[in-house]
Amino acid sequence: MGRKWNNIKEKKASKDANTSRIYAKFGLEIYVAARKGEPDPESNRALRVVLERAKTYNVPKAIIDRAIEKAKGSSDEVYEELRYEGFGPNGSMIIVDALTNNVNRTASAVRAAFSKNGGNMGVSGSVSYMFDATAVIGLTGKTLDEVFEILLEADVDVRDVTEEDETVMVYADAEQFHAVQEALKNAGVTEFTVAEVTMLAQNDVTLSEDAQVQFDKMIDALEDLEDVQQVYHNVDYGDE
User: pTM for the complete prediction?
Assistant: First the structure.
């Protein structure tokens, strides 16, 4: 599972370099999640997941509060959740999740980002079957054995628990996200380096140097799109 953690670190490093953009995306995602049900994370699981991830990206409280307050108001803004799937060089696969109030605009922009950078969009399901929705929780301050014991005592099912770069990583089915976090919080863990539900590839691919450059341009183009919230892929960045 070490390669998976490296890919997540790579994604976080990319986003950390564009804080204003990531804050704006989180603001929209929090607003949409809050509109799905009660704008209260205690009773709205979707909102709680977004807020936990926002903490690991250091999203300011003011942005979070503003998005939730907006959801409580009478705004008539309607956003659709869309998923696009596509292919890059040398067998690379990409999933793009978007929130949009203009489907035609978003579809056109995503298609262009693929085609202008050597990729192409596929039909729904052409890529996602090779990925698993996965809860990923990262923490420090506890040993691997301690985390194993905590989860065992709490009777929480997980796929794997690994240690890399002094970080203990827990991988579980997406439905176990809250159970894993609650077990760790009850054991005294107060901060997480990673806390999100993501799409992890079942098999990774390694690209040649030239293909990697082309692939990175495509990912950057997709992530730069205003309507795109998340981009997942199966490219292994190794020990970068």
Answer: 0.89
